[in-house]
Amino acid sequence: MLTDTHSHLYADEFDADRDEAIARAQAAGIGLILLPAIDAGSYDRQEALAASHPHLFRQMMGLHPTSVDANWEQALATARQRLFAQPDKYVGIGEIGLDFYWDTTFRTQQLEALQQQMEWAIELGKPVVLHLRSGKDGSTETDAYAEMFRQLALLDGHHPRGIMHCFSGTPDDARKAVDMGFLIGIGGTLTYKKSTLPDIVRALPIGSIVLETDDPYLAPVPHRGKRNEPAFMLSVAEKLAEIKALTTAEVAAITTANALRLFEIGN
Predict the structure, then answer these.
(1) Averaged over 75-84, what is the pLDDT?
(2) Of 27, 53, 107, 261, which one's alpha carbon is 20 to 30 angstroms from that of 152?
(3) All structural domains of the chain
(4) Could you give the angle at which helices 144-154 and 171-179 cross, rounded to 10 degrees?
């Protein structure tokens, strides 16, 4: 069984063929799909999807960093109310984090929202799924990974467990994350011709890796340029198997076990 640890299958892009996408995922061996939240505009859609196939989907709750704006406190209060009203409904806090790629207008607010949501994770004993995207300028001020490690250091060793989703950091970032107990989320970019991810994952223990799609984004080769969907994650698993000199079945078993252990699903 393969586990997609990061899917937005509730997004508008799937409205025309969501049921077919689910069937294709199951046919490809995807037995579990985790649904990270974005903001209040997505929560009801996410919950409806999860309720439609409770054996297949698990939910998270959180406020995405690109949704942190002038009304971030109200948005965060909405996420908190849902989470604490029914904490058992959610397996993790996510996706949360830092995004400095397009704009840093709300940098301070992103940091405050991140801090609060990590506190929720600690209080409830749930893992976090971290979205980290650095600025295009390559400056130290917009290095999302460096800032994330600073925020984790403020927690003095009491930080939550979690995944660094859609990993785009350096080899040193990956090693530091794993040393801190984080898993590395690997998706379609692993298959791209100019990707640096193959060298990074080659140096990582397979026990520190989980698979994901981040659909509808970042479709792997040979589907690059198309809308991504969970079934396409099989191509990522095959590429990881090639890099790690394992069978695809071994990759599926190990990465699924990693995810189940982190999210305490079925244990």
Answers:
(1) 98
(2) 261
(3) 2-263 (3.20.20.140)
(4) 20
